[in-house]
Amino acid sequence: MGRHIYICDDEAGILRYLQKMLLSQGYEVEVFSSPLRLLRHLEEGAAEEPAGLLLLDMKMPELDGIDTLRRVRELRPQLMVVMMTGHGTIDSAVEAMKLGAYDYLSKPFPQEKLFTLVRHCFEREQLIEENRQLRSELKNQVDPGTIIAESPAFRKVIDLAVRVAATDSNVLILGESGTGKEVVARAVHRASHRNEQRFLAVNCAALAETLLESQLFGHVRGAFTGAGQNQKGILEEAHGGTLFLDEIGDVSPALQAKLLRVLQEGEFIAVGATRPKRVNVRFIAATNKDLEKEVAAGRFREDLFYRLNVIGLSLPPLRERSEDIEPLALHFLSKMIPKTGSSVRRIDAEALAALRAYAWPGNVRELENVIERGTILADGEVMTPEALPLKLTGCARPPVAEDGPLPLREAERRQIVLALRETVWNKSQAAILLGITRKTLDRKIKEFDLSPAAAGDLS
Hints:
The chain is of the alpha/beta class. It has helices spanning 12-24, 35-44, 65-75, 90-98, 111-142, 152-165, 181-190, 209-217, 234-237, 253-265, 291-296, 302-308, 325-340, 349-357, 363-377, 408-422, 427-434, 438-447, and strands spanning 4-8, 28-32, 53-57, 80-85, 103-106, 171-174, 199-203, 242-246, 267-268, 277-278, 282-287, 311-314, 346-347, 382-383, 400-401, 404-405.
């Protein structure tokens, strides 16, 4: 919005007085002794001209303040207006407010009252602008290109995430590995009022219990061997922001009890400490486990489950959102081009069909890996099925002999031979095609007694 102020009053002395006062406070000021001149200026002004604030006199000979206000609202609806009057009544003030005036001042008014009102106007507009930016950021978070959500199943999840973002309620995100649980968690954080604070994520399955406890709660010097100094935990670092607990279903019962205290009381005790610390954190947890079954089996605390599951978001697997496969693939392609330096610019129809037909057990993460691989292996500007793993193309279909299915061992041999032939005996690329390690491929080549000559022989 800036700090631009227009003043319209037919009394030259008032104009000079207000201009001098407001210039001394660092505002940009334009004065108009005629409402018609003001309206002409607003009508002819450039669209990018600052919105700002208008101090408008109620009683002027050419056009009164109410009629001027009506015209101003038509020309610049975003312009904040404060009415000034020495002859005002409650009725005229109410009418001005109904027409969109922010407030009014009765002449004569002290400097401090004017300064306070002007400051409040700009603070209000700053909040409006911040909310507009927040809505824009939220839109970016849920629109294709950031979170691809063209399928009805995933769109429903994102719509709920939008509503959740405005609250401080804890969120539990359920879904298979690779479905984008952390992406959704970050989107909820960025769209919340905590978005200027930190978003911290911890993978609860990646750390041993004692290390995870120290990471979460911090520790004091001497708490355990090697604890040479006090160390803040992630909880304390996330104060005011959001903490994402990934793979919450793998947390031990003892640590579950300590997390429950944080959720219930808003406080925790660092490892080795005796005094609790208070913390204000929004929790978003995620797991690929069925926590209700874990609760029934006694492996997960029921009270912790309900504390986390205030709002539940269940992410559908990629195989249930086939409408998103193509836009996701194109999104990842645009992301990978600068990363890999590839010349690929598009994916051909046959390759897209193969992507859509695949079941994607690794979900979105697997698709991203496949597209990255495709940008590296593709020849030219078009990604074709040849750049995709064999499991996505027709080569991945189990080999069948004329008189019925081949024995499993022979089918495996043929798949390896196909990969070696396709890559002209490039073992590294063949291993990628087959989805196995180079070491495994070397072992299979030795087991089947294969040689470069065999790459052209399927008999």
